């Protein structure tokens, strides 16, 4: 196997024997094949789309397939193999749609090769035998590390955007034009391009992701209201319990509905924390609080959790035997042997919660505040502008992104603590667990730490930055705002590309840089966007505030 799509990749170079995440070589191979088959489908679907013909099932499959290959989503070899087979069938269907569209338009269909005409044996072993010929390693050897790395960067960004578009689609907010853009990019990736062209395409993926995040923002707020500043209990409440992890608001809403009146308390975990800010979710009294920290602490935390566990998206880790009977997956997330809820009926989760002990007593009351989405922050934009003009607020730090297990992430804790008292911190995504339970106080009645939400709420942060730029009548890059980001998986890559697409410069990124970026690609990014690796908290703060 060869996979270097996430930040914890082995030796910072690539997982070659077994994924550090737990992904085995067969699943890794099937995921590569799944991306390959998506390219084949897209070669037809993009051409059919240009002739005005789309197929909703094909669009949905591409989103789900890409999402399934994101780090820590689907570890189940058999499910991924089934997706490859389904993809091959849909590719035939895409070809038919394309040929019909050509006929209607009086055009001769192109004779497409590569992924469009790939015809492997369809049993598992036959598919696996094909994996080597389409592997990243092979492309590195044939096309060089710069080109293959940039192709992967584009692919990772698209995977991240697919996750957000899929969440929006599940909530009924769709956009055919956006889905067409996914096919166009995958079709583009079926052929070789120069590094410069690929950098352009990476920015296009950033634009696609912006649209995906905008749709998801609309979907979440339409379904559950605008996030409001909300106090969230971070200690247990006596009684039976279910903890819900991942990113899927719809699943949490459904679980809350199904557990109403059953004497079970529901807790958020990881990236579900911002759900407390949504009125449509917070209205359930039995959504009692947030449990634990970021995803990489789950094995210890779930071990200690005396109830049932529901994983709705990434990031699942290999479950310990101690909680294997109490953990469930739903949606696209799967782990071999873990019970999967595929029909929206959470009765098995509820039964497991009732069987478990639950918390024997209340923990000491402790709270944090979430819910500072663009609706709330823009509501006080005038006040923020006034505070900057009066000198009460000197600078805004956006410290956001993924958390992870590797060392070096203490930087983000130390950075947040070193931010001077006259500066505000905006945060989003699961990296916030490095500091979101610390006390930051207030400036003029505004909390110094503003939790904007999940990783997809980078959209909110972009709206806030744009509004401030407008109010100050300056470019976003001239705002008293600095972005210090942490990345782990492909959604963070998508967000980074969105920021590049918007022309945001001077981003600090850590704890390490993506392994797919070669020194020459990095040079391009540094030249164009002045992106830089994190240094030490002291040096970075001095550089930011001294600038
Ligand atoms: Fe390794 Fe990350 Fe790929 Fe998992 S997703 S195999 S940890 S690079
Ligand atoms: Fe975290 Fe997985 Fe990326 Fe949604 S939960 S930010 S790592």
Task: Describe what this molecule looks like in 3D.
This protein has 547 residues and is of the alpha/beta class. The chain folds into 3 domains: 10-223, Substrate Binding Domain Of Dnak, Chain:A, Domain 2 (Up-down Bundle); 230-355, Rossmann fold (3-Layer(aba) Sandwich), CATH 3.40.50.2030; 372-545, Rossmann fold. The protein is 47% helix and 12% strand. The chain contains 19 helices and 16 strands. It has a 6-stranded parallel sheet with strand order 4-3-2-5-6-7. A 6-stranded parallel sheet has the order 13-10-9-14-15-16. Helix 1 packs across helix 4 (124-131). The longest helix has 30 residues, at 195-224. It starts with 24 loop residues before the first helix and ends with a helix. The mean pLDDT is 97. The structure holds iron/sulfur cluster and FE4-S3 cluster. Residues 247, 270-271, 295, 314-315, 402-403, 429-430, 454-455, 488-489, 491-492 line the site of FE4-S3 cluster.
- Give the proportion of residues in helices: 40-55%
> On the 0-100 scale, what is the average pLDDT?
97
Largest sheet: 6 strands, parallel
Gyration radius, in Å: 23 Å
Predict the CATH topology of the largest domain: Substrate Binding Domain Of Dnak, Chain:A, Domain 2
User: What is the domain total for the residues?
Assistant: 3
């Amino acid at each position: 196997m060869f996979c270097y799509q996430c930040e914890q990749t082995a030796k910072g170079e690539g997982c070659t024997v077994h994924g550090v995440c737990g992904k085995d070589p067969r699943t890794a191979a099937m995921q590569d094949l799944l991306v390959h088959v998506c390219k084949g489908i897209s070669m037809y679907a993009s051409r059919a789309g240009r002739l005005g013909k789309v197929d909703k099932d094909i669009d949905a499959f591409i989103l789900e397939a890409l999402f399934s290959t994101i780090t820590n989503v689907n570890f189940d070899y058999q499910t991924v193999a089934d997706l490859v087979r389904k993809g091959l069938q849909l590719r035939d269907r895409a070809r038919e749609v394309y040929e019909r569209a050509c006929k209607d338009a009086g055009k001769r269909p192109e004779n497409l090769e590569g992924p469009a005409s790939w015809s492997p044996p369809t049993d598992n072993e036959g598919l696996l035998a094909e994996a080597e010929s389409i592997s990243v390693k092979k492309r590195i050897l044939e096309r060089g590390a710069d080109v293959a790395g940039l192709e992967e960067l584009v692919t990772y960004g698209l995977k991240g955007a697919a996750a957000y578009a899929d969440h929006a689609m599940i909530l009924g907010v769709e956009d055919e034009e956006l889905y067409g853009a996914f096919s166009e990019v995958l079709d583009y990736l079926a052929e070789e391009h120069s590094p410069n062209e690929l950098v352009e395409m990476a920015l296009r993926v950033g634009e696609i992701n912006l649209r995906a995040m905008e749709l998801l923002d609309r979907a979440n707020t339409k379904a559950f209201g605008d996030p409001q500043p909300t106090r969230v209990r971070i200690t247990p409440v006596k009684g039976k319990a279910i903890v819900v992890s991942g990113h899927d608001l719809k699943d949490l809403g459904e679980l809350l509905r199904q557990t109403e009146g059953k004497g079970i308390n529901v807790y958020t975990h990881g990236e579900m924390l911002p759900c407390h800010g949504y009125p449509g979710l917070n209205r359930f009294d039995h959504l009692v609080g947030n449990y634990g920290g970021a995803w990489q602490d789950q094995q210890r935390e779930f071990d200690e959790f005396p109830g049932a566990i529901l994983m709705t998206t990434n990031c699942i880790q290999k479950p310990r035997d101690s909680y294997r009977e109490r953990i469930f997956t739903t949606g696209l997330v799967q782990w071999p042997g873990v019970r999967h809820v595929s029909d929206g009926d959470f009765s098995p989760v509820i039964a497991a919660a009732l069987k478990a002990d639950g918390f024997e007593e209340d923990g000491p009351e402790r709270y944090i505040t979430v819910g500072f989405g663009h609706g709330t922050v823009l509501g006080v934009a005038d006040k923020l502008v006034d505070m900057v003009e009066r000198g009460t607020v000197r600078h805004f730090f956006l410290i956001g992104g993924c958390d992870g297990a590797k060392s070096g992430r203490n930087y983000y804790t130390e950075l947040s603590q070193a931010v001077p008292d006259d500066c505000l911190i905006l945060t989003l995504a699961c990296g916030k667990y490095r500091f979101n339970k610390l006390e930051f106080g207030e400036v003029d009645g505004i909390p110094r730490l503003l939790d904007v939400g999940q990783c997809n709420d980078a959209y909110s942060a972009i709206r806030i930055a744009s509004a401030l730029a407008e109010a100050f009548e300056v470019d976003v890059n001239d705002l008293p705002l600095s972005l210090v980001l942490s990345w782990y998986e492909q959604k963070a890559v998508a967000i980074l590309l969105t920021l590049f697409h918007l022309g945001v410069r001077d981003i600090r990124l850590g704890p390490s840089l993506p392994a797919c970026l070669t020194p020459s690609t990095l040079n391009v990014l540094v030249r164009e966007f002045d992106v830089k690796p994190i240094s030490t908290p002291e040096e970075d703060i001095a550089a930011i505030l001294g600038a």
